[in-house]
Each structure stands twice: as C-alpha cells, then as structure tokens.
Specification:
Layout lengths: L1 E4 L2 E8 L5 E5 L13 H6 L3 E5 L18 H14 L4 E6 L1 H12 L4 E7 L11 H18 L7 H11 L5 H11 E3 L5 E3 L15 H10 L4 E6 L8 H11 L2 E5 L6 H4 L1 H16 L2
Parallel strand pairs: 3-4, 3-5, 5-6, 6-9, 9-10
Antiparallel strand pairs: 1-2, 2-4, 7-8
C-alpha cells in the first residue's frame, strides 16, 4: 500500500487485519522486505502488521532537490504514517530504524503503545566541537554525490556486494535484500533503489544529553533486542546506562548477529509476540 505522510509518498507492506497495529521499521540502506520472514509470523499471532520503506529507501519517494535525510525528517514521516494507520501503534525498529522510532516515541508518546528496539539505541556520545568537522565533511560528501553518475550493475553483482557487507547473513537473506533493494532497468542491469544521498554522513552529531530528553518522555513498555554474536553490540556500561534511562528490558537472540529478523526470524518473532502481548495488558 501507499500512504502520503509529510508530503512524501511512502510504501508499506501489510500482513494480517487485526485491530492492533504494529509498524516495523528497517535499518540503514535496507527496505520493508527485510521483515518478510517476521511480519507474517506477527500477523499470525494476532497483530495487524505494516513494514515501511523509510523515505529514500525501497519504493518510498526520494526527497526533492535540496532536501536531505535528517532524523527529524524520519520522525515527521513516522508521525504522518502513524496518523494514517489509525493514530496509535506499536513500533519495532532495527538499527537506524530503532533510533528513529525511539525519537518518535519520545516526541508523541501518547501514540505509541509499545516500542521494541533491535540494536537501535543511538551511536556513542559526541562532543559539540565535532559538529564543525561534521558539517565540513558533509558539504564535501554532497559535492561528490552530485558529481557521481548513478551506477548500474547486475543482480548477481548486487548479491555479491551485499554478501561482502553482511557475511553472517544466510544466502536466502542476502538474495532477499538484493532482489527487493534493486530496480530492474530492462537490459539485464539493475540499480539500487536507495537515494545516493544516504551514502553521505549526516552533519548532525549525536548528543546523549539531548537524547535523554526523548527517553524521559517515553511512557510505553520498551524492549531492547540484540544478538549474542552481533559485531555491533554496545559496550556493557553504555548499554546498561541507556536501558536504565529507558526503563527497558532486554532480550538477547542466540545465534544471531546484528540482523535477528534475517538470521533468527522465528526466535525474534516469538520474543516480539510475547512482548507485545505483555504490553497490551500494561
């Protein structure tokens, strides 16, 4: 389905038809189909499930000339999507999607019934002086993207690139990401669906002091999920501090890296279903 939010057209996948809505939010340079193995299981457990393509990803619209992909934009998009889906949802966000859904849950806490964050609690803290370097590097990145011709490649090459980027993922998962993350050009070639602007580094540093203001406003139950073999697991002291700030409980998925929805979808779906049932009675 398509839904207009924040003046952009967003693409969403849909499973089930129950009353209670759950929105799944993918990570950086991925897309809604990353949830193809989890969404149907949650729907079978009694939820009305949507998986969104963030702006500039998958089949959602890109920003226009002069636009960008700041986290504030993701929050505004999600606010429109939540309204379009009835105004009250449970959110599940992976990595970048977790960071964005967490910001939204603190911005409009009355609209979020439950929040599950899959390795998405924000990057390490920054020093304010870092902003100058970030802005300078960002301008350079924008110039490079503007001058770069959009690449094309074969689907097999796209699979190979994702295989190198995600060495832990099963072959079927890599194929899934490649097939739905590219667009056929009709001559045996494909192009990536994501906007190349995503390959620039955001100018905005991450400040934990600022983030705590959002954490304090989250009123719903919060679950944090990570993989026991993840290469991106937080240091224990940082994780403990952020989980305490969010009053969140933690579940670790055995045999999984950074992508439990693709590595251990059954275990993740079971953990999410249990959490969502518990949150519904909260």
């Amino acid at each position: 389905m398509r839904l207009t939010a924040n003046r952009l057209s967003h693409h969403l996948l849909e499973w089930g038809g129950a009353e209670d809505v759950v929105v799944l939010a993918h990570g950086f340079l991925e897309h809604a189909h990353a949830w193809d193995w989890v969404g149907p299981q949650l729907a079978a457990a009694g939820w009305h499930v949507y998986a969104l393509d963030w702006r500039g990803h998958g089949d959602s619209e890109w920003v226009g000339a002069g636009g960008y992909y700041h986290f504030a934009d993701y929050v505004a998009d999600l606010g429109g999507i939540v309204r379009g889906l009835g105004g009250s949802v449970a959110l599940v966000g992976h990595s970048m999607g977790g960071n964005a859904t967490l910001l939204y849950a603190g911005t409009e806490p009355q609209r979020v019934r439950a929040l599950a964050l899959i390795e998405g609690l924000g990057p390490p803290d920054s020093d304010p002086v870092d902003a100058v370097e970030r802005y300078s590097a960002w301008l350079g990145d924008l110039e490079k993207v503007s001058a770069r011709q959009r690449p094309t490649l074969s689907l097999a090459a796209a699979v190979s690139r994702l295989r190198m980027r995600y060495p832990r993922l099963p072959d079927a998962a890599v194929r899934l990401l490649a097939e739905h993350g590219t667009r056929a050009l009709g001559d045996g070639r494909v192009e990536w669906k994501f906007d190349p602007l995503h390959q620039t580094r955001s100018p905005q540093p991450y400040y934990v002091a600022q983030a705590r203001g959002f954490w304090r406003r989250v009123t719903c139950p919060v679950l944090y999920v990570d993989g026991d073999a993840s290469e991106l697991r937080y240091p224990q002291d940082l994780l403990a501090d952020r989980l305490a700030g969010l009053r969140a409980r933690r579940v670790t998925i055995a045999g999984s890296g950074h992508h439990p929805h693709l590595e251990q979808p059954g275990a993740l779906a079971a953990a999410l279903s249990e959490f969502l049932r518990s949150a519904a009675s909260h």
